[in-house]
Amino acid sequence: MAMTVEAPRSPIAARKSTNWEKWGWIYMRASGVVLVVLIFGHLFSNLIATPGGVHAIDFGFVGGKLANPFWQWWDVAMLWLALIHGANGMRTIVNDYISRPGLAKGLKLALFLSAAILIILGTLVVFTFDPCPAGADPSLVASFCPVP
Questions:
Q1: Would you list the domain boundaries of the chain?
Q2: CATH T-level fold of 25-128
């Protein structure tokens, strides 16, 4: 089977549509750089800047961090970027290795749905997390919660 590549200035290549592959490629590079900063900032703040290091991380530590809007947005940015970055990488793998169009479409739909569900659930958890739920058994809640 002979394969031809159109000349760059041919009418087919000159149409005015968005090049999603190019933007996906750019997103992977930009999100990768931002993710490195977010992940190493997360690790530094949790393991090095925290007195006690990894041994100090418990439910109370996480509850305290998620009570701070700065860390909420930090974690949500990390969540969104990592999930979209990973889903886009998997989409690229599907494009490269799956030749049956129906299967490729189904896998890409599954990737999109799983990433969207995880983003929604993760965002809800970060912004609605309450380490001291009202009406909970006092023996089950964290020690820093006020006793009713």
A1: 25-128
A2: 3 helical TM bundles of succinate and fumarate reductases (1.20.1300)
Give residues with Cβ within 8 angstroms of 37, minimum separation 6.
none
Structure letter (DSSP) for residue 146: P
The one-letter amino acid code at 13 reads A
Q: Give the span between the Cα atoms of 75 and 120, in whole angstroms.
A: 13
Tokens at 55, concatenated: 């041994």
The Cβ of residue 8 has, within 10 Å, a number of other Cβ atoms equal to 7
The reported pTM is: 0.79
List pLDDT tens digits, range 110-122.
999 999 999 999 9
Question: d(Cα 84, Cα 80) in Å, to the nearest integer?
Answer: 6
